Structure formats: structure tokens, C-alpha cells
């Protein structure tokens, strides 16, 4: 069973290439935490509509309360990873959970590294 | 037309290949002498077809004679007559004999020349057949519709001057007139007047051989195509080719940027806003109706969803409330 889980994880860790491109491609995620984050994002995407609709029934002052309680139970029955709150915006290159700028999806250290090597378009050292 | 000219010129000359054959048997001097005898002793035939054939044959011989002029030939009788007649349509035996005589009179490779001559004869036969069936283009029909453009010497002079000199006012005037004159000439002959010349064939729009052997390409075909693409794909030589490749892969957007790429909402605005017709499955009164009307109000203000998605949204609620019916009855 451990072997099966490992196999599944390895397969998940690999990126699927739709077409053979001659460039170098990263075929593993940076670490397991990043992999889990990816899983959570996928499942959250899958259940997003349903969650929205059930919440619309729940957060309602018009419908009867019994209906709302039933909706509560339903939403609790969904997988835990389907809620978007569990997603963490990690750095894309280093998987750092803190110090990540949203626009570039990079942690502060990586961002500084690239900006100093002039590899970030439109980014300049501030001076005023 | 050449044939017509030949007709006129040959009206005086008389020709029969039968006489030629006889002469060939009798004469037997040099082959050249025989040939001259042939041409000299020909008579007029009534039927047009044979006349045309002989015209073509004689024309051929004359052309051949003019082309390959050289020292005297060695007299060797070519033997390839039977071979040639077997191919395709059988030629007139007299023509064949005449061709052999011509070939023998010429300096170079006898058999080759003879085969060439016979090939030409065959081609001419084909053209005569085609002309009879009316498939080839008669140049007379084409020319009949054309008129000769007459230039006044004054115009000619101005045209020349117009080409060489600068854009002075006078030249501009003259050029304008020339342009107008050309237009007037064209307008005189309209496009739809005249007999139909079958020069261009209508592109037959056959229904694409509907089903290929497999209705969709098989996996092996796809694999093969992928392999070929991978092998032939050269690395980009410059930045432009790199950008082209990126655009094909989808990494780079297409310019000028189209804001609605991937979004193909063909629905009109009224389908987005007036969604009450989807509310037919719900009870007319009660909190559920109230709730759904709010839902619809919200959807009508939503510019990000397509009509399909909105309809799906409403149907999901319908299904949900159907399932919860027993619960609702208790209330």
C-alpha cells in the first residue's frame, strides 16, 4: 500500500508534456508541500461551483432554517481539500510559504536575484 | 492557322501516298529521290480528314528535313515499321512508309528519327481528333472578338513624351486623356458579349472524398505525424522564428491582441438578462421563488459567465430543491 501511494505520488509529481518540446523541462515539483498544495488547488477547482451554490443557500435569510441546516451538512461532507482557504500561495521556484509577492508568484529572495540580474521585465532598483 | 495556310498552298499540289508507295517500289534510286517523287506525285483528295493528315505529315517531313541537314545518308532500310504500328492507334501505313523514307534520307540515327516522326504523326492525329470533337481552343474564336487598337499619331507622340518627361501639367492632361480613352475602349466591348470560349474549365467542386478509409485518423497515423513533425522541426534560426514557435505553442499571444480569444459567446444580451423563462420548474410562490428571483437578478448582472453556465446554475438549484422536496413538505 505504501508502494502504491508512492507510485501515485511520483506520477502526480511528474508533469505531463502534451507535445515533445526540445527545451529543458522540470519534471518534479520542488518539494512535497508544493505537491500537496497543487493537489488542493485541483480539488478546490473541481468543487468550486458546488461550494458556491451550497453557500448561497446557507448564507440566506429567506429560505427556511431546516434547509440551511441540511446544506451545512452537505458542505461538511465535501472533501476537506476542496475549500479554497487551505491553498497557500507558495513561491513557484522555491516553495517558500512566506514573503511571496502575488504579482510574480516568487519569494522575495528569488525576486531580488532575478531583478539584480536584469531578468525581470520592467523592474528596476528604486532610487528617489 | 497553319493548317489553313497549308491548305491554300497545297491546293495546287496534289498528293496521294498510294502513288508514293508505288514510286517507292519502282524508283529505288536514292531515298531522297524517292521522297521527292512522293511529294511530286501527290493528288488532291476529297475527304478533309485525310487531307489534313497528309498536310501534317508533309509539314513534319519538311520540318525534319530543314532541321537535320547534313551530308548524304547511307542507304539502309529501317525496319521498325511493325513495332510502331503496334503502339496505340495504328497510323496510316502509307504515312508510315513515307516516314521511313524520310528517316532513311536523313544522316543521323535512322531508327530514332523514324520513331520521332511517327510519334509526331500520332500526336497530330490526336490533335485532329480533338479538333473534330471540339475540345481544343480554336484561336479564331478568341481573336474574332478582339479589335485592333488604332492610335492617332498625335497620341503616340504624346505617349512617348509622357513616358520620358516629368509630370508637367500638359503631360498630366494628356495622360488623363489616355487613361480615359483606354476606359472608353474597354467600355465599348462589354464582358458578356460574344461566343463562349472554353478556355477555362470550371473547377469541379467534388465533395471531398467524404469518408477517408478511417473516419478519423488512427492512433498510428497520429503517432507517425508527431514523429515526422519532431524530426523535421529545426531549432529556430532567429528571434522571429522563435516567436512564431511560441505563438504556435500558445506561450505568446497573437497580435493585435484580441480580448475575446477563447470566449465564444454567441448569445444576445437579452439571453443574459431575461432569465425568467428558466424559472418554470419552480413553485410560483413561497420563499424558494423569492430566493430564485434573487439568484436570477444576480446572474443577469454577471458579465463573466456564459449563458450556458447561467442555465446550468439554475438547473443545479432546481435539481437540489427537487431532492429536498420531502424535507420541504414537512415544513
From TrEMBL, chain A:
GO biological process: one example: translation
Entry's Gene Ontology molecular function annotations: structural constituent of ribosome
Gene Ontology CC: mitochondrial small ribosomal subunit
Pfam families the record matches: Ribosomal_S14
Keywords assigned by UniProt, alphabetized: Ribonucleoprotein, Ribosomal protein
Coiled-coil ranges (or none): none
Family indicated by similarity: Belongs to the universal ribosomal protein uS14 family.
Name assigned to this protein: 28S ribosomal protein S14, mitochondrial
UniProtKB/TrEMBL annotation, chain B:
Region named Disordered: 1-33, 57-94
UniProt keyword list: Mitochondrion, Ribonucleoprotein, Ribosomal protein, Transit peptide
InterPro entries noted in UniProt: MRP-S31 (IPR026299)
A Pfam family reported for this protein in Swiss-Prot or TrEMBL: MRP-S31
GO cellular component, one term: mitochondrial small ribosomal subunit
Biased composition, class Basic and acidic residues, residue ranges: 1-26
Location within or outside the cell: Mitochondrion
GO molecular function, one term: structural constituent of ribosome
Family listed: Belongs to the mitochondrion-specific ribosomal protein mS31 family.
Name of the protein this chain belongs to: Small ribosomal subunit protein mS31
Protein species of origin: Aegithalos caudatus
